Amino acid sequence: MHGYPPVLKTAPATTPVSVADLRGYSGIGDDVDDAVITAMIEAATATIDGWSGILGRAIVSQTWTQDFDRFSREIILALPALSVSSVEWKAADGTTVTNVSSDDYDLEHLAGGSAVVFPTAFTLPSGLYGRRAVTVEFVAGYGVNAADVPAPIRQAIKMMVADMHRLGSADGVMRNESVEGVGSTSWSSPDLVAESTRKLIDRMLSPYRIFSI
C-alpha cells in the first residue's frame, strides 16, 4: 500500500561534501567565500536529495514521516529506509494514538525502495481514524557521515558546484578563431562546458536513481 507524500522531520547533520572538499577543485580558490561555496553545495545537494530530488532517495541519514489511511500487510515507503523508528496509528476518535511494537513488523528492502511488513500472526488494527490514521517514522540515507555516501554521488555534487561557479564567473572553454590578414579572436563557451558536465553527472548518478514503486 502506498501512502501520502513523506515529510522531512530531521534534516541531515552534514552535507555529502564540505567546503574543504571544494577548495582548489576546478578553479574554486581561496577568493570564493565559504558562505558562497556552502550555498552552492546545499543547492546541488537539494537537487538530487530526498523525496523530491532526482535520485528519489536520501543521501546522508535523515528522518522522515509518512502517513497512510490504513494498515496492510505491506506498507511501501516512499524512500529506501535504513531503519524504522516507529509505527503509530490513530483511533476513530482522532486522539488516541497507539504505538505498534517493533517486534510486530520487519523492514524489507525491495527493488525500488523499502516496505514495512507485518507477519500474518499480527492482527491488523481496526477502528482507525478516517484519514492519515497510520504514521511511519523512518531513517533514510546511506549513513550519518559524508564518507558513507557512494563516491560517484559525492563527485557529482562537486561537479555540480564547480559548474555553478564556472557559469557564475562566465569562465568556460576558450574558443579561438583566426582569419589571415585580419587577426584572431577568442571567447569562452560556458554553455558547452555545462552541457558536457550535465551528461557526465547524469551517467554518474544513474545507477543510484530510484523510480517510484
Q: How is this structure best described in words?
A:
- The structure is a single chain.
- 25% of the residues lie in helices and 27% in strands.
- The longest helix has 18 residues, at 151-168.
- The chain has one domain (7-208).
- The strands form 3 sheets. Strands 1-2-8-4-5 form a 5-stranded antiparallel beta sheet, with no helix packed on it. Strands 3-7-6 form a 3-stranded antiparallel beta sheet, with no helix packed on it.
- Strand 9 and strand 10 (183-189) form a beta hairpin.
- It is α+β, with helices and mostly antiparallel strands.
- The protein has helices at 19-22, 34-48, 151-168, 190-205; strands at 7-10, 62-68, 74-76, 81-90, 97-99, 106-110, 113-117, 134-140, 173-179, 183-189.
Low-pLDDT runs of 5+ residues are 172-179
Question: Largest sheet, if any?
Answer: 5 strands, antiparallel
Widest sheet: strand ordering: 1-2-8-4-5
Distance between the termini: 10 Å
Specify Rg, calculated over alpha carbons. 23 Å
Query: How many DSSP H or I helices?
Result: 4
Helix content: 10-25%
What letter string, H or E per element, gives the SSE order?
EHHEEEEEEEHEEH
**Beta-strand residue percentage:** 25-35%
The pLDDT mean sits at 88
Q: Please tally the β strands and state the result.
A: 10
